[in-house]
Amino acid sequence: MESITIKAGHGHAFRVDKGKRFRIITPKGQQSADFFAFSTDDIEDCLSPHHTWMPTRSLHPRVGDIFLSRRRNPMVEFIEDGADGLHDLLIAPCDSIRYEQFGEPGHRSCIGNLEEAMATLGCDVPAAPLAVNFFTNTVVEDGFMFNTPKEPVAKPGGYVVLEACMDLICAVSSCPYDLAGPGWAINSPDGPTEIVVELL
Length: 200
Ligand SMILES: [Zn+2]
Fold this sequence. Notes:
Layout: E1 2-6, E2 11-16, E3 21-26, E4 33-39, H1 49-56, E5 66-68, E6 74-81, E7 87-88, H2 96-101, H3 110-120, E8 132-134, E9 138-141, E10 144-147, E11 158-164, E12 168-174, E13 195-199
Antiparallel strand pairs: 1-13, 2-12, 3-11, 3-13, 4-8, 4-12, 5-6, 6-11, 7-8, 9-10
C-alpha cells in the first residue's frame, strides 16, 4: 500500500487503474478534501457533481453511489464512509478569483492546487472542473444552503474509500480556505490541516 501525506493547503495528483481502491483521510478532522477525477483516455471527461446527484437523488454522497463524469460515464464508486456522511456536492472549488474578491490576492486555492498537482503528471486541467467535497458539511433547507459552523464536523481520522470505475487521474486538495466568514466553517478554525491518500 502506498500512502501519501498532502501538506495542509496543498494538493496531489495520482493515477488509479480501473478496479483499484483508494482511501482519503482527514487525520485531524474537519478538513475539506476537494476530490477531482479525470478519464485517462479523455482528460476533458472529468468528475461532475451535478451529473452525479441527479440519478442518486441526494445532495450528499452515500455508500453505493457512483460518481459520474460530465459525459455521464461512471468514474468512481463510493465503497466505504468513515466520516458519517459529511460530504458535499454543491460548493464549487475555491480559486484565485474567489480569494481576490475576498481581498486576499495570491492566496492558495483548490484550483491552484489542482493545476500544480496535474502539472507534476504532465497534464493540463480542462476548463472549470468541479469537485466532490469530502469532509465538508452542508445543509439544505427549503432550497437554501447552509454551511454549519458548529457540529457535526468530520471527526479526526474520518475517511472515505473509493473504487475507480475506469482508468483515472485523480487529484485531492487540502482546501486552503482559512478566512473568517460568518456561517462558514469549511475547515478547522485553527486553519487547514493535512490530508492522507492511501492507494490500496
Ligand atoms: Zn478550497
